[in-house]
Amino acid sequence: MAPDPTKQNTLCISYLLGDITDTFEAFTLSLLSSLMVSGPNSPFYKALIEPKIGTDFSSVVGYDGSTRHATFSVGLQGMAEQDFDTVKQIISQTIDDIITSGFEEERIEALLHKIEIQMKHQSTSFGLALASYIASCWNHDGDPVDLLKISENVSRFRQCLKDNPRYLQDKVQHYFKDNTHRLTLSMSPDEKYLVRQAEEEQQKLQQKIQSLTDGDHRDIYEKGLQLLEAQSTTQDASCLPALKVSDIQPTIQYTPVQMGSAGGVPVQYCEQPTNGMVYFRAMSNINSLPEDLKIYVPLFCSVITKLGCGEMDYRQQAQRMELKTGGMSVSPQILPDTSDLDLYEQGVLFTSSCLERNLPDMFQLWSDIFNSPHFDDEERLRVLVMMSAQELSNGISYSGHMYAMTRAARSLTPTADLQETFGGMDQVKFMKRIAETEDLTTVLRKLPRIKRHLFNPEYMRCAVNATPQKMTDVAAEMERFMGNIASNRKERKPVRPHIVERSLDPSGSVECRKLVSEPHFQPCQMKTYFQMPFPINFVSECVRTVPFTHEDYASLCILARMMTAKFLHGEIREKGGAYGGGARMGGGGLFSFYSYRDPNSTQTLTAFRNGVEWAKAGKFTQQDIDEAKLSIFSAVDAPVAPSDKALSRFLSGITDDLKQRHRERLFAVTEKDLIDVAGRYLGIGQRTCGVAILGPENESIKKDPSWVIK
What is the pLDDT of residues 652-701, one digit of tens each? Predict the structure, then answer.
């Protein structure tokens, strides 16, 4: 998967730092680490990433306070072996440079602003995140309460800088320059690695087998039978404390929203206790974008906020974003319709947040990105492309099941086909090709063309979550922002002929979602095998079923959860030896089976089929159904942060009424419903299904003409 086969080496240097129970020192070192490696203004980014010696930082980078003595690591991946010494010299030189010149005051302010935002932003896992933040230190007898006094630590940090302007440089001198306790780790690939590993394993196995007596053989065989019996018996879970389905609230809490408009663009206002933060989102459809440019959309989204804009180059832009916002991003969105599988919305989502006092600055940054993004720095684009391609190829071994599910689904619905283009193996291969391209000027020239179609207020809608007291200011800033970007507004003809309009407002007054309909889409059966350089498989089978509002959707959700817990987990993980496996029902109407890091390939497809037969035969109890319902409700009723309230309504048009109806259907699912949907949708030959496997060379699949080998 590497863009350059000669550059697949990694070098990383780790330094041993102080004891994590010294909480203020640990806090300082963690800040220092961010200043050294985070973002395009950091010294190590400038010294290691920008010269393009490698593709990205090594997979472990920065401060790690999870052990008694903290460590700091820095290095490069995607580099040539002959550059090892150069990189060591660069790291050493960069440390010297930091000691000499220190850090700009504005960068330190940006970092402290980031901490302020982290303290104000309420995530649904806030408590859990705090608990894991204090766990390591507390385990080693540190004071957990000291760790939580973040504001005090910030004040003390500011005081230390005031008392000694060279405070941070002295720390770098002590922990990096004068510190001999360091480890240099280099990793180089070996084409015969897997073969050698298999040979060594085989030799070891033979030695062990040869030393076994007849009694040992019998013992192993009997233990194997005992294990199989243990795996096949149903455990008695009645001794465990459990919720009942009747404990679940029958109705949901409704979230009030107000619909308005700014400069002719529909805006959803949602008043929430956001703790002094403002959350902004805008969705813009890409219906007018020419087909040949579609595959470039994810790349465009990942670089558009990182190339510079207005009067600022990319470094100044990054600094300004850190100083004034909680982050700004653009991401591709493919949203299936809730009632028709051949209808979907395609677009990009703009997301950002800021402290209330920085609202005008945040919208000014968006205005600059809309009106005058920079598309002239080929070297900067190359750095971003290399990092992106490296990230995608690294991600396959971690998220292979997601890639397998995306590919298995591609021939079943128009939404899934586009998902494969934007985020599947097609995108991975495309980015590899771009990263291998010598001259990126043709790619650069495409970016302004894409921008014209994506940054068009004519096809936008916005959503803001903020406190009630701030909404008037937000509305005024929105008007100003829309006035600033009005020159980008232009009516353009959609590429696909069938466009269906949907409203965000239940009264139907604001028709602002323009969905693409593909009435002639023909789902087809497809089996794809991707040969990969790792010894495990990721297996998936997807079946086209029904959309979110269909009466059978709830039954399929419960069936997927129950089949996972009561059948597939036992077959695929406990007996099959995979890391994981199961089934899930997706909002796009696809019922997906999957396995994760699986030693088997086609046997797992048999396990999927057996799971369907198990469900059709009704080999489950009422308790199994109730457990599956509780499990589904734990996801349905998962807390939603103030920043994300009413988001599904804004994006997919899923109103509280639709959620309540889905909830009632989940409660009503019976044993008969589950047996019925298993037979009607998942039985052999009932519906169109797709299959995909990512895995090592497979002789039996190679000989089978029904598979497409990639």
Answer: 999 999 999 999 999 999 999 999 999 999 987 788 999 999 999 999 99
> In this structure, what DSSP letter does residue 180 have?
-
Mean pLDDT value across residues 14-35:
95
344-403 tens-digit pLDDT = 999 999 999 999 999 999 999 999 999 999 999 999 999 999 999 989 988 998 999 999
Q: Which long-range contacts (CB under 8 A, 24 or more apart) does 598-603 make?
A: 598/536, 598/537, 598/538, 598/539, 598/572, 598/695, 599/536, 599/537, 600/537, 600/539, 600/576, 601/537, 601/539, 601/693, 601/695, 601/698, 601/701, 602/700, 602/701, 603/576
pLDDT digits (tens, 9 = 90+) for 139-165: 999 999 998 998 999 999 999 999 999
Give the sign of the dihedral formed by CA 455, CA 460, CA 463, CA 468. Answer: positive
Average pLDDT taken over every residue of the chain: 93
Residue pair 653/512 in contact (Cβ under 8 Å)? The answer is no
Structurally, at CATH architecture level, domain 9-187 sits in 2-Layer Sandwich (3.30)
Query: Which pair of tokens denotes residue 353?
Result: 């947040």
List C-alpha distances in Å: 478 to 160, 260, 447. 40, 11, 26
Residue 329, beta-bridge partner list: 351
Cα four-point dihedral sign 559, 560, 566, 567 = positive
Q: How far apart are CA 274 and CA 122, in angstroms?
A: 7
User: What is the Cα–Cα distance from 577 to 596, expressed in whole angstroms?
Assistant: 10
pLDDT value of residue 686: 80
- Residue range 526-709 forms a domain whose CATH class is alpha beta
Q: Tell me what pLDDT residue 234 has.
A: 79
Asked if residue 428 has pLDDT above 80, the reply is yes
Angle between helices 425-436 and 378-409 (to 10 degrees): 160
Reduce the DSSP state of residue 531 to 3 states and report it: strand
Residues 304 and 331: their CA atoms lie apart, in Å, by 10
One-letter amino acid at 315 equals: R
- Domain 272-517: assigned CATH number: 3.30.830.10
Which residues contact residue 629 at a Cβ distance below 8 angstroms, ignoring those fewer than 6 apart? 245, 248, 558, 666, 667, 669
Rounded distance between C-alpha atoms, residue 603 and residue 243, angstroms: 36
For residues 554-584, one letter each, b for 16 or more C-beta atoms within 10 angstroms of the residue's C-beta and e for the rest, the string is: bbbbbbbbbbbbbbbbbbbbebbebeebbbb
Can you spell out the DSSP letters for 74-137? Answer: EEEEEE-GGGHHHHHHHHHHHHHHHHHH---HHHHHHHHHHHHHHHH---TTHHHHHHHHHHHH
Nearest 5°: phi and psi at 269? -100, 130
Query: pTM of the entire structure?
Result: 0.90
Kindly report, residue by residue over 208-249, the tens digit of the pLDDT.
Answer: 999 999 999 999 999 999 998 888 887 887 788 888 999 999
